């Protein structure tokens, strides 16, 4: 591909991401208003957590995966927004003083800094619950079977066997618990942890598209390969940003892994090794999409974007 | 009814509650094992939160409400266990230092005392998510429509417009937030708060039974009246225990409302007034069940139990 064509594609992806972000933010805004609740403070904290920026990468993956099967963006939007609610809740709880103790998220004060800890805990709980409320709505899937499949998949991806389990392993990797045996992490351990902590939701994003689109088993398998590759790329890119990034640009504190004494894949592979692995994963992700032809152009470009993002 | 017959009924209820508790505990144990997760510490914290006692009143209400329509106990068990997961998660998060800061729950150390705060936050998140994973399983309802209705109802009852919203109002009633205007609570405010904080899940218990049983609109309305009355009775009984109870018997700290400067209905009505209101609510609950005949005997007795419980 020529450099000009590649630049066009990158610009198309940025526009599509921006359009998706606007749609998802509007949908979440409406969903928080509908879920209502009697406490303006709680609603404000949920809005702070859910509406203040973010690339909306996971919703984009839902919408683009579903589009492979001809599903309209508006039809994929509730599932996309539900997933983003789960992502946002996880950030709120991860940032709490008892967890990662972060003051800054997306360039803004974290929820417990902008409000208080109790409000942050409840806002996170409210967003997690809202995700399932959204998936149970009539417009969330073509029929009750699809909606139940979306609920089952999201609960699996988000729960103790997925994201929450990965976060727990991550705390253990920081040596939080005396029994955990800090410092002995292998590449396999770190990959397992990250496959759960960040990979599970990225994987679900593509799974949701497959459910909405009624994908065949072979199509699902291709999307799974893609999802696994971008999940790994996402985490390696994140680790690189933690080593090399600038807090102002990244929008959150950097250098935290080293400060926490936490082993990352970048430690084990070195920066050049990590960059080579990223390139390999992008190729793997793109190859997995080959069968979908030109409908998968933006998803393929998204793999590039994930590997090379600056924040 | 003679005293002897009444004693028989009370004994029958205790036996039925005990049987239900055993079934639900076994189901939750299996569900936590299935949801697996790679962290033994997280699983242990979830088990501590979910399996260490409790009356299992909400699951009992699901099972007995469903039984009004001839639904077998085993068929109502997943929905019953899912609801109990939500109840248990809410206790874990409510007990956190940033919330009610309790050391004791059901006579045991709270999860953040037995483990640590981060683990308690994640164990709560894991149990909330597990509830929806359970409801999405094939055996959770007669068909996908029923399962989606159960998901929708639970999410509504548990979220910002239900339990989480009520908990937020409760924190505000304690004067936690400068803007909240402490001390001006009316009986209407307190009832609204409590209808959300504890009433919403009790209400859902009966709603779940109606969904599983395919109840008519009139039958649903009767169960709703029952649920509203026992919800109010539950809270007044709780407030009385906080005033009059003994920590050893109650299994958690008492006198906390007064210490927090929190107005309760017992403050507004006085102890004799609260007792009279309890008696009225029990009669209202029992009357709502009249149309179900003898099938509702245990639910009617449960209203008594809720109003007069000692812990």
What is the correct CATH architecture of chain A?
A: Orthogonal Bundle
Supply the CATH superfamily name of chain A: Farnesyl Diphosphate Synthase
Might you state the CATH topology name of chain A? Farnesyl Diphosphate Synthase
Radius of gyration of chain A: 19 Å
Name the quaternary structure: homodimer
User: Which CATH C-level class of chain A is it?
Assistant: Mainly Alpha
Q: Can you tell me the number of structural domains of chain A?
A: 1
> Which percent bin holds the helix content of chain A?
over 70%
- Side by side, the strands of the main sheet of chain A go 1-2
GO molecular function, one term (chains A, B): dimethylallyltranstransferase activity
Protein name (chains A, B): Farnesyl diphosphate synthase
Family (chains A, B): Belongs to the FPP/GGPP synthase family.
Keywords (chains A, B): Isoprene biosynthesis, Magnesium, Metal-binding, Transferase
Secondary structure blueprint with pairings:
2 copies of one chain form a homodimer.
Chain A (H helix, E strand, L loop, with lengths): L2 H33 L4 H12 L5 H11 L5 H22 L9 E2 L2 E2 L1 H4 L2 H19 L8 H15 L4 H11 L13 H27 L3 H28 L2 H4 L5 H4 L5 H24 L8 H12 L3
Antiparallel strand pairs in A: 1-2
Helix pairs in contact in A: 1-2, 1-3, 1-4, 1-14, 2-6, 3-4, 3-9, 4-6, 4-9, 7-9, 8-9, 9-10, 10-13, 10-14, 13-14
Family (chains A, B): Belongs to the FPP/GGPP synthase family.
Keywords (chains A, B): Isoprene biosynthesis, Magnesium, Metal-binding, Transferase
GO molecular function (chains A, B): (2E,6E)-farnesyl diphosphate synthase activity; dimethylallyltranstransferase activity
């Amino acid at each position: 591909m020529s450099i000009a064509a590649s630049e066009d594609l990158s610009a198309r992806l940025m526009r599509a991401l921006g359009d998706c972000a606007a749609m998802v933010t509007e949908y979440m805004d409406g969903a928080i208003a509908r879920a209502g609740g009697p406490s303006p403070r709680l609603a404000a904290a949920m809005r702070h957590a859910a509406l203040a920026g973010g690339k909306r990468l996971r919703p984009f993956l839902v919408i683009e995966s579903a589009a492979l099967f001809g599903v309209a963006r508006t039809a994929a939007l509730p599932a996309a927004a539900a997933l983003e609610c789960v992502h946002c809740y996880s950030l709120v709880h991860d940032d709490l003083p008892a967890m990662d103790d972060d003051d800054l998220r997306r360039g803004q004060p974290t929820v417990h800094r902008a409000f208080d800890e109790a409000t942050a805990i409840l806002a996170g709980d409210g967003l997690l619950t809202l995700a399932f409320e959204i998936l149970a709505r009539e417009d969330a899937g073509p029929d009750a079977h699809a909606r139940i499949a979306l609920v089952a998949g999201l609960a699996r991806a988000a729960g103790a066997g997925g994201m929450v389990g990965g976060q727990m392993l991550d705390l253990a990797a920081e040596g939080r618990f005396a029994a955990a045996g800090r410092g002995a992490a292998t590449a396999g351990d770190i990959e397992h942890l990250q496959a759960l902590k960040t990979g599970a939701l990225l994987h679900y994003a593509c799974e949701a598209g497959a459910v909405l689109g009624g994908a065949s088993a072979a199509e699902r398998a291709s999307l799974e390969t893609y999802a696994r590759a971008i999940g790994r790329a996402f985490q390696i890119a994140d680790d690189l940003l933690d080593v090399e990034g600038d807090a102002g640009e990244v929008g959150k504190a950097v250098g935290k892994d080293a400060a926490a004494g936490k082993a990352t894949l970048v430690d084990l592979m070195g920066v050049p090794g990590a960059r080579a692995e990223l390139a390999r994963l992008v190729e793997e992700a793109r190859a997995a999409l080959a069968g979908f032809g030109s409908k998968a152009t933006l998803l393929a470009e998204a793999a590039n974007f994930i590997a090379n993002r600056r924040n």
